[in-house]
């Protein structure tokens, strides 16, 4: 994609960490997630993640190389605690500005 050119639905890009993204009507989505959702015929749940069985992030087009797994409940609890701590930090910064 050319810098300065507006991206179109279906355009793809590769991030520095090797993940491939595809432009959809709602924004940029991880391509491997789109491939799995198409294979399953549904959207992924909030606690579902996708891993590459061969560890190669460029091998996203083969649905058999992608595995869906559910994150542990503890992971969600930790994430919630981090978000709540960040909210408290931002509220304190906002109070300092007022």
* Average pLDDT number: 89
- Measured by DSSP, the beta-strand proportion falls in 15-25%
The number of helical segments is 2
Q: Work out the helicity level.
A: 25-40%
Radius of gyration, in Å, reads 18 Å
Q: Give the CA-CA distance, first to last residue.
A: 43 Å
Quickly give the structural class.
Answer: alpha+beta
Strand order of the largest sheet: 1-2-3
Instruction: Give the topology string: H per helix, E per strand.
Output: EEEHEEH
The largest sheet is:
3 strands, antiparallel
The best one-word shape is extended
Quantity of strands, as a count: 5
Low-confidence stretches: none
Record the SSE blueprint.
Blueprint: E1 12-14, E2 20-24, E3 27-30, H1 31-40, E4 48-52, E5 66-70, H2 73-97
Antiparallel strand pairs: 1-2, 2-3, 4-5
Note down, in words, how this protein is organized.
By secondary structure, the chain is of the alpha+beta class. The protein has a domain at 12-70. It has helices at residues 31-40, 73-97, and strands spanning 12-14, 20-24, 27-30, 48-52, 66-70. The strands form two sheets. Strands 1-2-3 form a three-stranded antiparallel β-sheet. A two-stranded antiparallel sheet has the order 4-5. A hairpin with a 5-residue loop joins strand 1 (12-14) and strand 2 (20-24). The protein starts with 11 loop residues before the first strand and ends with a helix. 4% of the residues are buried.
